[in-house]
Amino acid sequence: MYLSSFLPDPDTKSKQQKVEKGMDKGGGKNTSAYALVEGSDILKLLKPRADFSHKGTYGHALIVAGAAETMGAALLSAKGCLYGGAGLTTLSIPESGLTALNTSLPEVMYLDRDALGLIKKDATDKYNAIAIGPGIGKDKQAEKILEQLLKAKRALILDADALNILSSRTDLLSNILPHSILTPHLKEFDHLFGEHKNWESRLETAVTKAREMQIVIVLKNQYTFIIDEQGSVFINPTGNPAMAQGGMGDVLTGLITAYIAQGHTSKDAAVLACYFHGKAGDELAARYFNVTASKIAMQIPKTVRRILNR
Ligand SMILES: NC(=O)C1=CN([C@@H]2O[C@H](COP(=O)(O)OP(=O)(O)OC[C@H]3O[C@@H](n4cnc5c(N)ncnc54)[C@H](OP(=O)(O)O)[C@@H]3O)[C@@H](O)[C@H]2O)[C@@H](O)CC1
Ligand SMILES: Nc1ncnc2c1ncn2[C@@H]1O[C@H](COP(=O)(O)OP(=O)(O)O)[C@@H](O)[C@H]1O
Predict the structure, then answer these.
(1) Spacing, Cα 189 to ligand 1 middle (Å)
(2) 281-305 pLDDT, tens per residue?
(3) 60 annotated binding-site participant
(4) Across-strand partners of 217?
(5) At 76, which helix (H) or strand (E)?
(6) Which of 14, 49, 80, 276 could form an S-S bond across to 255 if both were Cys, CB 3.0 to 4.6 Å?
(7) In angstroms, what is the span from residue 187 Cα to ligand 1's centroid?
(8) Which helix (H) or strand (E) holds 206?
(9) Cross-referenced HAMAP family, in alphabetical order (predicted)?
(10) Which residues of 145-180 are buried (b: 16+ CB within 10 A; e: fewer)?
(11) Which of 132, 37, 33, 120 is closest to 91 using CA atoms?
């Protein structure tokens, strides 16, 4: 299989560039080999729910998201995290969203925005994973929250408006810690790292930036590319156009956060989340013409169970 099969550009130089099957064959330090994620890779990464385990075993995730008009993005991320199996999920939203949170997701806890300043360095507080971005907006207040979290010197999952803020505050990029995960779609990526004429050059930049910053980049599209800290590129084959609806990325962010909370590395968390997100969408698309983001989140435990039972 060739790289061009996974790119929307009809005419790309890399037509003859081979994509290997199986994650173990990912590109090394100085190569740009592409590896296709397969179900067998996912089975190797999944951690079973162990006997005698409890909520503490599966980590505590914190998601900083939402604003008055985009509270839905926060709720969808929290839903992704909850259904992704985090032991505990806490959502930091504006207080105006509390009733919506308590009525729609009673399992999820709330953290006041003012308490974000208490997040400690080096994971010495109770959160095993921290995500910021879905629906937080791009105003000064959102910028301040992002700056504050970056100061805590923790690896973060950065999505949506957090990426938009970084595009206009590029000085903050140097505060992103190694093993952080950036989840841009095409436009967010180009705003952040410059305009690209085609996907091949966009991918090259993603590889360079992931290596330079020692981060994981989840470059979202029909086939999402996951680029790890060494610049290895993993292509996610799951997902379909029935999933092209708002809020889908918010759920993905919650899922990634759930897998980090459960102790996976940044690359593995991103690979697992993208695979299951798309696979849930594929299962639903067999029955529904289009699938909503909420439905994807709720399908995740069934999808994971099915794959484990294979
Ligand atoms: N319920 C809620 O509260 C929801 C809240 N949300 C939250 O709101 C915030 C802003 O989100 P947003 O959708 O307004 O802006 P953003 O995602 O930057 O898109 C802007 C434009 O970019 C383009 N574009 C996007 N994807 C593309 C792609 N893959 N490939 C190519 N182009 C692509 C497309 O432009 P077009 O192609 O239509 O010209 C699109 O119109 C953010 O924080 C998010 O989390 C949403 O999640 C929805 C549910
Ligand atoms: N046609 C498609 N095929 C497969 N996956 C898709 C398709 N359209 C969207 N998605 C997935 O949905 C998500 C969209 O993310 P994003 O653009 O950030 O959405 P939002 O901001 O509305 O939450 C990505 O994970 C992307 O891979």
Answers:
(1) 12
(2) 999 999 999 999 999 999 999 999 9
(3) no
(4) 182, 227
(5) helix 71-83
(6) 80
(7) 9
(8) helix 199-213
(9) NADHX_dehydratase
(10) bbeebbebebbbbbbbbbbbbbbeeeebeebbeebb
(11) 132
d(CA 207, CA 222): 19
Q: CB under 8 Å to 42, separation ≥6 — which residues?
A: 271, 272, 275, 276, 307
pLDDT, one tens digit per residue, over 152-209 is 889 999 999 999 999 999 999 999 999 999 999 999 999 999 999 999 999 999 999 9
pLDDT at residue 13, rounded to an integer: 67
Task: Assign domain 3-309 to a CATH class.
Answer: alpha beta
Q: 29 pLDDT exceeds 80?
A: no
| Model pTM score | 0.96
* Burial (Cβ within 10 Å: 0-12, 13-18, ≥19) of residue 98: middle
Strand partners, 235: 36, 225
Compute the distance from residue 270 Cα to the ligand 2 centre, in Å: 14
Extents of the domains making up the chain: 3-309
* Cα angle, residue 283 at apex, residues 280 and 288 outer, rounded to 5°: 110
Rounded to whole angstroms, the Cα distance separating 200 from 203 reads 5
User: Beta partners for 110?
Assistant: 91
Ligand 1 pocket mutation pick from 187, 190, 191, 256 by most atoms within 8 angstroms of CB: 187
Ligand 2 site, CB within 6 A = 160, 185, 220-222, 224, 239-241, 243-244, 246-250, 252
If you write DSSP's letter for every residue of 238-294 in order, what string do you get? Answer: ---GGG-STTHHHHHHHHHHHHHHTT--HHHHHHHHHHHHHHHHHHHHTT-SS--HH
